[in-house]
Write a structure and sequence with these properties.
Helices cover about 15% and strands about 30% of the residues. It is built from two helices and nine strands; from the N terminus they run H-E-E-E-E-E-E-E-E-E-H. Mean pLDDT is about 75; it is low at about 20-40 and about 165-204.
Length: about 200
C-alpha cells in the first residue's frame, strides 16, 4: 500500500515538473507575437504575370514625364527556354530585357533599362506594353512612377536634368568696360586710347 502511494506521488511530481517546463518555455511567446504574425509592408511596385514571365515589384524611377525613366524590378522566366521581354511606352524606343530559361533578371543591376520619355510624372501610373517571345504573349501593364523621395531608390535614379546652360556673358572671367571705366586689373590688354584733345604741333 505504501509503495503504491509512493509511486503515485512520484508520478504527480513528474507531471508537475513537466507542466512547469512547458509554461517556462512558452512564456516568452505568450507576450510577444510570433514571427509569422508580423505584417510585411507592401512593395512599391506591381506584381503581375504575362505569359511565362512574372514581373515582381516593377516600377519606373524618373524626374518627370518628359525625362528618361529607369525600370526597376525583377523579371522571372518560368519557361524552359531563354526569353526576351520587351517593354514599350507610349513613345520612344522599346526596352528589351533578356531572361535565361527558368531564371530571372534583376533590373537593379546594370545596364539600366530606360524608357525615354517616361510618359508620366512621379506619383502617376504609366501604361506600358509588356511582351515576351517564349510564348508570344503580350499585355498592357500599369507601372507606378516614383522619384528620389524614397531613400532606397536614390542610387537608382536617372541623371537629373540639366538646370540650364550659362549665357555667353557669364562664361568669361574678365568684366567688360562700363560707362564709368574699369580698374587696370580687369581691363582688357591693348593699346591705350587716344585723348580727345589734339597734341600740340611742333613750332616751325
Amino acid at each position: 500500500m505504501a509503495t503504491s502511494i509512493l509511486r503515485a506521488g512520484m508520478r504527480g511530481a513528474a507531471a508537475a515538473l513537466t507542466l512547469g517546463v512547458v509554461l517556462l518555455t512558452t512564456g516568452c511567446s505568450y507576450d510577444n507575437p510570433a514571427e509569422t504574425a508580423k505584417i510585411t509592408p507592401a512593395t512599391h511596385g506591381i506584381n503581375t504575370v504575362v505569359g511565362s514571365v512574372k514581373l515582381a515589384d516593377m516600377l519606373i524611377l524618373s524626374h518627370g514625364a518628359d525625362q528618361p525613366g529607369r525600370i526597376i524590378g525583377t523579371v522571372f522566366n518560368t519557361s524552359s527556354k531563354d526569353s526576351t521581354v520587351t517593354v514599350s511606352g507610349a513613345s520612344g524606343p522599346p526596352v528589351s530585357i533578356p531572361v535565361k530559361a527558368n531564371g530571372y533578371t534583376s533590373l537593379a543591376q546594370p545596364p539600366a533599362m530606360m524608357l525615354d520619355p517616361t510618359g508620366g510624372a512621379p506619383g502617376s501610373m504609366v501604361t506600358v506594353k509588356v511582351s515576351e517571345d517564349a510564348t508570344g504573349t503580350s499585355a498592357d501593364v500599369q507601372l507606378p512612377v516614383l522619384d528620389s523621395t524614397l531613400t532606397e531608390y536614390q542610387s537608382y535614379m536617372p541623371a537629373a536634368p540639366a538646370s540650364g546652360t550659362p549665357s555667353p556673358t557669364q562664361s568669361g572671367g574678365t568684366a567688360s568696360p562700363g560707362p564709368t571705366g574699369t580698374s587696370p586689373s580687369t581691363a582688357s590688354p591693348g593699346p591705350s586710347p587716344s585723348t580727345s584733345s589734339p597734341s600740340p604741333s611742333p613750332t616751325p
